[in-house]
Amino acid sequence: MELIESPLESLYFSARYKHTRSWRRRFGSRLVGNVESSQLKRNSTFLMGSQTVNAGLAFVFWVLAAHLFTTTEVGQGAAIVSFSALVANFSNLGLPSTLLRFLPLSPSRGGLYSACILFLVVTGTVGGGISLLFIAHVSPNLSSVRTSWLVGSIVILLVVGNTLNPLLDVAIMAFRRGDLIVIEAALANTAKIVAIVALSALGLKAIILAFLVMWYVGIAFDLAVTITKLMRGEQFRPRPKLILEQRRYASANYLGGMMGVLPATLLPLIVLGRLNATQAAYFYMPLQIATFLNVICGAVSQSLLSESSQTDDLLTQKTLLGNAVTHLYRVLIPAALILGTGGWVILRVYGSSYARNGYPVLVCLCAASLFVAINWMGDTWLNIQKKSVAYFTMNSFNAIVVVASCYAASSHGLLAIGAGWLVGQAISATVYLVIFGKDGVFGILIASTRFARSNRDRVARVERRGRTPTG
Q1: Which pLDDT does position 223 carry in this prediction?
Q2: Angstrom distance (rounded) from CA 295 to CA 304
Q3: How far is it, in rounded angstroms, from Cα 207 to Cα 216?
Q4: pLDDT tens-place string over residues 17-46
Q5: Residue 440 carries which DSSP code?
Q6: More confident site: 274 or 211
Q7: pLDDT tens digits along 346-391
Q8: Once rounded to an integer, what is the mean pLDDT over residues 78-107?
Q9: Which residue range is the domain that position 409 belongs to?
Q10: Is pLDDT at 1 greater than 50 in this prediction?
Q11: For 79-88, 273-282, 422-431, which range has the lowest pLDDT when averaged over its residues?
Q12: Partner of 371 for a Cys bridge, out of 54, 172, 387, 429, CB 3.0 to 4.6 A?
């Protein structure tokens, strides 16, 4: 039997080996080849790299915080950071996803970019100011924020920074430059660590000031590389009309995204209100560690949306989805197993009490990540298909189910809250599997998996024979 059975396969293998170098064979040719095989995998890999940097340096940051401050200060700081993230999500108007979806083909990229920035500076400032009026009602333990003009001002700036940073990151992603986001993550998080050490004498204020430094270092970097490199020569006069033209898409993303982040941002506040600040600290640490698994999902999701925005062909989009799901679970399953089994050691770095109280929660969050991945892909698929009502409905359903499950279980302790998270995510994932079945996605997933396995088997046979295939 001939090794190469068709001209197409001959072309594929000839092109693959034409540019292969000896160092690539010796030091991981398959890994490098897989990363370079598609733009989707390349960008998602860079985004995973940036989030790995975020998660790794955030781990260092919270270890320092756990040793520099009391558990009460850590719990209150975590709650304030979560609160600012929640308000920022209310303030972003759905513009990050809109910019990612429409910037590449916009007739005035500079005008759309600057208009989005202008809108979010205004909404972030207004949203941050209004939120101070209600913070005591959201969490009575944070009522002191209203009485301190300094902390209140920092919270407003935190909201603005937290609103702008995702927008500027997706602008870079729209140009398929995930490598720049890795650099930005390293610079911003390093600045945050330096800030918390330098300002440690300020107690609680040091924690939130460090986050403030991180957001604005990231913003400065993103603006610099976008204006001077990626969009050099563009006119940056704001054109709000370009945003208004996509108001339906933006509105759906705003409402859906707002509901989508409610569970993760509300849970620390629920723990703080239903239990106490110490329990909030014990809960927040495993939540931060498990965030690494969620950002793997987010990286693949964002890359899938970016690539699917380049075409309107449904079959191509389904194929991209199949490749994304396959790539996602190949990375996520080993990561969840490693994190779930080795989480005790990681939490032990914070202190024995963090490991003792937080590890069972971390195991629940790691198990839930397998369902969270389905929900991420489902959200992205609805976004690609511009099914605005379905996108908002599913995010609302997920938020209600997860928050209700965790709230109902909160009186039974941290482990019960973790179990509530797992159950809520599993219910949402089940609904998305039904949606995938109706849209005929399963066939594409199976086909893409078989194709990838077939190509790997053929490459392995060629390498074992030690020769370059020809037609």
Answers
A1: 93
A2: 14
A3: 15
A4: 444 444 344 434 343 334 334 666 777 778
A5: T
A6: 211
A7: 887 777 888 888 888 888 888 988 998 888 888 888 878 777 778 8
A8: 80
A9: 38-439
A10: no
A11: 273-282
A12: 429
How many independent structural domains does the chain possess? Answer: 1
419, 366 in Cβ contact below 8 A?
Answer: no
Distance between first and last Cα of the chain: 13
150 and 275 Cβ atoms separated by less than 8 Å: no
Task: Find the angle CA(97)-CA(165)-CA(214) to the nearest 5 degrees.
Answer: 155
79, two tokens: 């709650």
One-character DSSP codes across 202-249: GTHHHHHHHHHHHHHHHHHHHHHHIIIIITTT------HHHHHTTHHH
Contact 132, 155 (CB under 8 A): yes
For residue 14, being part of any structural domain is answered with: no
Distance CA 222, CA 166 (A): 10
pLDDT of res. 4: 39
Identity of the amino acid at 154: I
**How many CB atoms neighbour CB 438 within 10 A?**
8
213: left (phi over 0), alpha (psi -120 to 50) or beta: alpha
| Position 131 confidence tier, pLDDT thresholds 50, 70, 90 | confident
Amino acid at 466: G
Nearest to 141 by CA among 51, 201, 77, 89: 77
Return the number of other C-beta atoms located less than 10 Å from residue 420's C-beta.
25
Closest CA to 423 of 433, 438, 408, 442: 408
Single out the residue of 301, 172, 182, 285 nearest to residue 225, CA to CA: 172
Residue 449: inside a domain: no
- The pLDDT of residue 332 is above 50: yes
Mean pLDDT of 310-331: 81
In a domain, 315, yes or no: yes
- Residue 11, pLDDT above cutoff 60: no
Beta strands in 247-298 (DSSP E): none
What's the CA gap between 429 and 446, in Å, rounded? 19
Please answer whether residues 76 and 142 qualify as being in contact, where contact means their C-beta atoms are separated by less than 8 angstroms.
yes
Judge contact between 264 and 12, C-beta under 8 A. Answer: no
- For residue 27, being part of any structural domain is answered with no
How far, rounded to the nearest angstrom, does the alpha carbon of residue 145 sit from its chain's CA centroid?
A: 28
Share of the chain above pLDDT 90, in %: 11
